[in-house]
Amino acid sequence: MGTVNYFKALADETRLRILNLLNGNELHVNEIVGILGMGQSRISRHLKILSDASLITSRKDGLWVFYRASDRDFPGQVIGLLNVILKRENPYALDISRMNEYIKKRREKGKEYFNAVASDWKRIRGEILGELDLNSEIVAAMRKCACAADLGCGNGELAGLILAKSGKVIGVDRSTGMLDEAGRYLEASGRGRFNLRLGELSHLPIRDGEADCTVINMVLHYLDEPAAAFPEASRITGKGGRLIVAELETHVDESMRRIYGHRWLGFSRETIEGWISENGFILKKRKSFKAVKDLNVILYIAEKV
After folding, report:
1. Which residue range is the domain that position 129 belongs to?
2. Overall domain count for the chain
3. How far is CA 32 from CA 53, 261, 295, in A?
4. Fewest CB atoms within 10 A around its CB: which of 121, 190, 234, 240?
């Protein structure tokens, strides 16, 4: 009867369209509504049917619930077969085109936000971290090295401090405004030995094994696919090198989305540690710090094996 239930759930164009969008993508209800141009109650009803049939999975993050097509066992095989067929037909192919355009606009909006707040970034960080001197904690967790990579380098303050432990630092950010701020700050402070590059954490402009230490500091909660940063961090970090991740622990403060543009309300320790271990690192140490509004920041220190 399980197989029959799968195909009963698939016997509807709207559900096929939803499943097509969720194959390899994680979206919340409002995003699906916007892409398909349908009412929320209609989409929610079809999501429940797909979920009851185990064709999609869901993950709660604060008030948002994110959905993704199943990739396990028989449902995953069925979805894989459908993908081959649906990507050649309309309206399914058109839906994918709309989704890609939506994701592109969402990313551009994120870049615009960071470009707009670049000159005020220090104040914004202070509103979230309070009295916590996270940059100093990160530098203290580093070992002396030849080259460090600061992924999502922002206004360059951390990169400047990293140079006390590293021969040079590569700063990567997707915001040109942030890179401009970082360049001015590092030049004005007399801290040479830096190289700033425009790029995404999911596709870093850094050579394999180029970094001896890789830092991801309070960046993951802004990313569409935070897990994608870890294979890239592994690729650029040489054997025996160190990975340092600072990130908010899971919380329920929805104002972080509204005021500061966060996509994720932090991450559980198990989630971050899973991404670390799955990508060739061994966790060596974990430290917890109090920020503002009962937020916790966790510092993960790992080494490449």
Report:
1. 119-304
2. 2
3. 19, 19, 30
4. 190
